[in-house]
Design brief:
two-stranded antiparallel ribbon, 6 helices, 5 strands, 9% strand, globular
Length: 172
């Protein structure tokens, strides 16, 4: 689920408003609002799509809130859906031991150099195998080419998302 701010018909880049929202802590309300909206959509769409997964990015600002997971869980429970994703980006591998997640989302940064850099490709493969050994499924974001999709499939990555499959679109 992607957040877009449209003002006077112009899309404002998340790269511009997210840092501002993090600074003034409005990001907390925005993230929980988005999570609530996504849970509503999941519940509605589950009638049509049995294995529907929707990823929701949360700001690193939440890491300072000891009740964050409980608040997130409350939203999910109120809509009858469950949390099963572990994001990357600002998270660390050390968090894997503490989070009861069953899906590891691999940040697009891992994929960016994998086609041209053997070491990056090896690391990507190790991360996918590590997740598998922990009993976790994997999803990689940022897939833009057929080559990338085939590479990930060959490395054992089970799911992928990116412009190669579909560009961001309204939920309608």
């Amino acid at each position: 689920a992607l957040v877009r701010w449209i003002k006077d018909g112009t899309v404002i880049s998340p790269g511009k408003f997210i840092p501002l929202f993090e600074k003034n802590r409005f990001i907390i309300k925005l993230d929980f609002y988005i999570m609530d909206q996504v849970c509503q959509k999941i519940k509605c769409w589950q009638k049509y799509y049995n294995d529907l997964l929707i990823s929701v990015n949360m700001s690193r600002v939440h890491l300072k809130d000891p009740q964050f997971v409980e608040k997130l869980n409350d939203i999910c429970v109120s809509h009858g859906v469950s949390i099963d994703d572990f994001g990357s980006g600002y998270s660390s591998l050390n968090m894997l031991k503490d989070l009861p997640a069953d899906v590891l989302k691999i940040d697009r940064a891992f994929l960016a150099e994998s086609n041209s850099n053997k070491r990056a490709n090896d690391i990507l493969g190790y991360v996918i195998r590590m997740a598998g050994s922990l009993g976790m499924h994997t999803i990689c974001e940022g897939i833009e080419t057929d080559e990338q999709a085939k590479l990930l499939s060959g490395l054992g990555c089970e799911m992928a998302q990116g412009f190669y499959f579909a560009k961001p679109m309204p939920s309608d």
